[in-house]
Amino acid sequence: MSTRLICFTSVIALTASAAAAEMNFNRIASFPVIANMAQGEDTSRETSPEIIDVTADGMTLVYTDSPLEALGRVDITDPANPAPLGNIALPGEPTSVAVIGTTAYAAVNTSASYTDPSGVFLAVDVASGEIGDSCDLPGQPDSVAKSKDGSFLAVAIENERDEDLNDGVIPQLPAGALVLINTTEGGLDCDSLKIVDVTGLAEVAPTDPEPEYVSINAAGETVITLQENNHMVVVSSEGEVISHFSAGAVDLENIDTVDERGALIFTGNQEGRKREPDAVTWIDEDHFATANEGDYEGGSRGWTIFHKDGSVVYDSGTSFEHALIQIGHYPDKRSDAKGVEPESVTFGEFAGTPLVFVGSERGSIVGVYDVTDPAAPVLRQLLPSGIGPEGFVTIPERNLLVSANEVDGLEDKAARAHVMLYEYQDAPAVYPHLTSAGMAELTGFGAISGMVAAPDGMIYAVNDSFYGYQPTIFKIDPSQSPAQIVGTIPVTRKGRPAQKLDMEGITLDEDGNFWVSSEGRTDRVIPHAIYKIAPDGTIDEEIGLPAELMAVEKRFGFEGITKVGDTLWMAVQREWKDDPKDHVKLVAYNLETEEWGAVLYPKASPEKGWVGLSEITAHGDHVYIIERDNQHGIEAVTKKIYRVPLAEMVPAALGGELPVVSKEEIRDLIPDLTSTGGYVLDKVEGLAITPEGEIWVSTDNDGVDDHSGETMFFSIGTPES
Fold first, then answer.
1. How far is the first Cα of the chain from the last one, in angstroms, to the nearest whole number?
2. Measured at the alpha carbon of residue 154, what is the angle toward residues 152 and 155, in degrees to the nearest 5?
3. For the chain, which residues score pLDDT lower than 50?
4. Whether the predicted model's global pTM rises above the 0.85 cut
């Protein structure tokens, strides 16, 4: 068979000049931070890489890991193959780190309580892990920044509020401050520590400033975000306040403002939404950019460029969030709060082009903007990240960008925390794989499950029950790069969105009708069923499971559906109570005789978790089946396509002895799933085969809930006959 994997050019370049750019960032590696744990250490402990920096030679990454109370180190001599260098234990939770030469300067929170905050500032030798100078800090630290010449550092003393006290209303003393401290060769000059008072400046709780993030420009000026206070402060290298001003507010239009309703509806508005910036980075000596995450009373879902005199040079408004919506990275469950939550922002100049990198905490995307003209930034790319990108470091001399992704999915059985590396290459952009950017209306998507190819080469896909109030059939043109959603068909009953569906499979008949399998969950009152849906999306017929099937299984239903002659074949994901071990049913329903039957399919025995079926598609003399485990990353073992001869697909009556079919492995998908530099995604859900025999595969992004939001949609070519 062909081993072709399509490379997709980015649809996100919004101008002709950006579209023509030859250089693009592509992810080249993902490093699971549990790899830094020592032999025998408990890998079930939570890890969280947050703030990250690099040694002067660009070869060793250093990141904070607050759950482990450690600094983690990664060897990136070969950036495509990052190697663990282990963790350095610290006397508390590190909040930030900056590296000068081979010394990591780490701020550590040692607070006894919110009302008794404290911290220490440490100089740590990166190579040996030895802790040198230690300076006491006048409160609980957050962000750390280094001057361009490495002569001094700035530390934001946040003294964060107790959100459980008085509903989190501020002021809650003690107040925060800014600390400036000089460095020595590989150490700290504790006697030089200077406290800069920033009380009395903000309109919001002026007695209780909470500095969140700091950045230092080439002139030695420190810009500080007071996130909860919605205020910005610029301080000279001598510790004098040069300017300060409100971060202001934004009117937002065409946003989703209601969460957990299982629908993407971008018709809401929010007026006067406070920016409440988190991260900040200087672009030049006069301009800095903020990521407007929000926290206390706001969050404007975008990012802003300010002049240091307080004037707004640029604001992204909703354009950043809209770009994420179009590539399936919108977190619907955050709609009433802060949407995609831009939390981090970093600057770097690559090949002479000044670039700002904006990280979406909830959308798990890195936006790459050309800021040659600070008043008119151009969105060049959207890069896929791990879950919850928190910190970034640019290494322009090596054409590298690195993200630290703080969310560890241990408790939610999601992916573990990763550090990811991207290279600036003379090559097409690989991500996104699927977009709705060409649609006339703003169109979101996610949780793509079953797929089917139409005679004209178009591919139709369904979303699953995550969008329970917006069941949709998506029409996809795979001939475009990236693949383009060119139409949507809402699934309806009596003119209203059809509810109580869990669409996991889709196929077509000769008249253009869709047949959809609903997996069902009786404990959620979602029936196990097959639906006939007209081309306009109207449900015409519902076929419930017979009593003999419902008697043995009430949870695991149909994950895929295909049509062979007059017979619909459905793949069941996992064993039913009457199935032999490591065997699952392929269930048949004859549309003419209305008879049910089944065969048994032998699946792999799981090394961890479970293994099941995700899809079934007929083509030629075979049916093709996706068999997968429920594991992510380095623990993933089974992500494969098999085929079964149609000659063996002779169903026996239910309740009797069922024949066992044979299977032939067609493709191990793990190399495909790691070909874009990411970790292995668990949910390979969609399989469509065009009339010419080209196989397309897609992954389910779980509606960007405890998930990076990444949707892979790729071709593996044409199977051998």
1. 9
2. 140
3. 1-20, 721
4. yes
Both structure tokens of 695: 């196989």
Spatial contact of 537 and 513, defined as CB atoms under 8 Å apart: no
How far is the C-alpha of 485 from the C-alpha of 156, rounded, in Å? 45
Cα distance between residue 422 and residue 215, in whole Å = 23
pLDDT (tens digit per residue) in 246-268 = 999 999 999 999 986 789 999 99
The predicted structure's pLDDT at residue 15: 34
**Closest-CA residue to 13 (of 303, 370, 364, 361):** 370
The set of residues, in sequence order, having a beta carbon less than 8 Å from that of 541 and lying 6+ positions away, is: 531, 532
H-state helical runs in 421-527: none
Per residue in 381-418, pLDDT (tens digit) is 999 999 999 999 999 999 999 999 999 999 888 999 99
Decide if 316 contacts 689 (C-beta within 8 A). Answer: no
CA dist., res. 619 & res. 625, Å (int): 11
Residue pair 314/304 in contact (Cβ under 8 Å)? The answer is: yes
pLDDT of residue 260: 65
C-alpha span between 59 and 56 (Å, rounded): 8
Type of residue at 693: G
Q: List, in order of start, the domains of the chain with CATH numbers.
A: 1-66+247-430 (no CATH), 447-700 (2.120.10.30)
Using only C-alpha atoms, the chain has a radius of gyration, in whole angstroms, of: 27
